[in-house]
Design goal:
The protein is an alpha+beta fold. It has 2 domains: 103 residues, Ribosomal Protein S4 Delta 41, Chain A, domain 1, CATH 1.10.1050.10; 87 residues, Roll (Structural Genomics Hypothetical 15.5 Kd Protein In mrcA-pckA Intergenic Region, Chain A), CATH 3.10.290. It is built from 9 helices and 5 strands, in the order αααααααβββαββα. It has a 5-stranded antiparallel beta sheet, with no helix packed on it. The two termini are 25 Å apart.
């Protein structure tokens, strides 16, 4: 599956805000975006032209894509699913993103970034209800039990793992037991990220995939 392998700092600069894509480094004073929060070449001196409404929609779409680590086709397909469901399309789309297995692993504190969580899932570190799942986009359901495989716990990664980023486990997940995550219920409205202007993205895709 195709994935972005370039500079994560460049992605934040394209959007104009820190997307916290680099794990612990994103939260430190050494973070490249924190030190230079502007696009390459302008050094904060060039006055940028006013962004159109379409441009704002595009930027917000890219911000969510970059944050969750999706490629365009994946993201468009997710919105196709959201448009087919009854309810608030934006909240439905965010709910589907939050229920991705790689995001669940990250939100439960078993990885320091979504990209690290995605790598762990791909490498077969987790089971769901006793069955190995190595698909990062797998959508978890209520009562799913996600556990780290016993043989993987002996690996250097898990023996040395430390959570180094701010973390608050959302109320729809139970991560009270070590190396285990229980899906209590689906994400509620208050569990969805508020940093994104999801309405702008719904408007963008309403002309593309609806």
């Amino acid at each position: 599956m195709a994935r972005y392998t370039g500079s994560k700092t460049k992605l934040s600069r394209r959007i104009g805000r820190n997307l916290y894509l680099k794990g612990p480094r994103s939260y430190s004073a050494k973070d490249d975006f924190t030190k230079h929060p502007y696009g390459a070449g302008d050094h904060g001196k060039t006055r940028r032209s006013k962004v159109s409404e379409y441009g704002k929609q595009l930027l917000e779409k890219q911000a969510i894509k970059y944050t969750y680590g999706l490629m365009e086709k994946q993201f468009a397909n997710l919105f196709k699913k959201a448009f087919k469901k009854v309810g608030d399309t934006g909240k439905i789309a965010l709910g589907l993103l939050e229920r991705r297995l790689d995001n669940v692993v990250y939100k439960a504190g078993l990885a320091n970034s979504r990209s690290q969580a995605r790598q762990l899932v791909t490498h077969g570190h987790f089971t769901i209800n006793g069955v190995k799942v190595d698909i990062p986009s797998f959508t978890v359901s209520v009562n799913d039990l996600i556990t780290v495989k016993a043989n993987k716990l002996k690996s250097p990664f898990w023996e040395n793992f430390q959570l180094l980023v701010p973390n608050g486990v959302p109320s729809w997940l139970d991560a009270s037991k070590k190396n285990e995550i229980k899906v209590i219920n689906l994400p509620l409205d208050e569990d969805l990220p508020i940093e994104f202007k999801i309405g702008a993205v719904v408007e963008y895709y309403s002309r593309k995939v609806a």
